[in-house]
Amino acid sequence: MSSQDFESARGTRGGSRRKGAGDVVSKASDAAQDVAAQARQTAADAAATMKTQVMGLLDRQVETGADMVGHFAQSAKRAADDLDQNAPQLAGLVRMAADRIDHYADGLRDQSVDELVRAASDFTRRQPALVFGVAALAGFLLYRTVKSAPAMSAPSIQPGRRPHNGASEPHDA
């Protein structure tokens, strides 16, 4: 075999090796892309399932909240019935407020979380000053409530020391 034939045979074998390596790399790349696509699809499916479960939970919480508001309205109506004898005007106001609260509770039961968020967003766009004012008032009331709460002292963690209760302790002299 001549050196040219040897070089030619060696080049052919090297070319087939390179082609084989390229096929392996191509197949590995395709497999990695398939795995990545499957992982994305699995993640998207899991996110959709989780969103559905969370929305179902929130919808149930809205129903529970509506039931609580309804119970409050019923209690207010009973209070209005009790007030009828002594303060009929006040009883009428309480009854009217209870009817509105009951109507609100019924409307709340018929809505999903998405609808409530959309309604709140629309109201905020229509009445931004009112929403800002209510938020500021709520923040102020929360601040005042927290500030006026009595300070709680932590119990002593040192061994042998009793918490100070305001009484004078005997001193050893």
Which features would summarize this protein structure in a list?
elongated; mainly alpha; 80% helix
Can you give me a brief rundown of this structure?
The protein is mainly α. The protein has helices at 3-83, 88-109, 113-126, 128-148. The protein is built from four helices and no strands.
Shape: elongated
Quick one: how many beta strands?
A: 0
Average pLDDT reading: 80
Please report which band the strand proportion falls in: under 5%, 5-15%, 15-25%, 25-35%, 35-45% or over 45%: under 5%
Q: Return residue spans where pLDDT drops below 50 for at least 5 consecutive residues.
A: none
Tell me the span between the first and last alpha carbons. 117 Å
What structural class results from the helix and strand content? Answer: mainly alpha
Q: From the alpha carbons, calculate the radius of gyration and give it in angstroms.
A: 37 Å
Structural description of this entry:
- With 173 residues, the chain is mostly helical.
- The chain has a domain at 3-111.
- Helices cover 80% and strands 0% of the residues.
- The protein has four helices and no strands.
- The chain has helices spanning 3-83, 88-109, 113-126, 128-148.
- α1 (3-83) runs antiparallel to α2 and α3 crosses α4 (128-148).
- The longest helix has 81 residues, at 3-83.
- It is elongated, with a radius of gyration of 37 Å.
- The relative contact order is 0.05.
- The model has no long low-confidence stretch (mean pLDDT 80).
Topology (elements, then pairings):
Elements: H1 3-83, H2 88-109, H3 113-126, H4 128-148
Helix pairs in contact: 1-2, 3-4
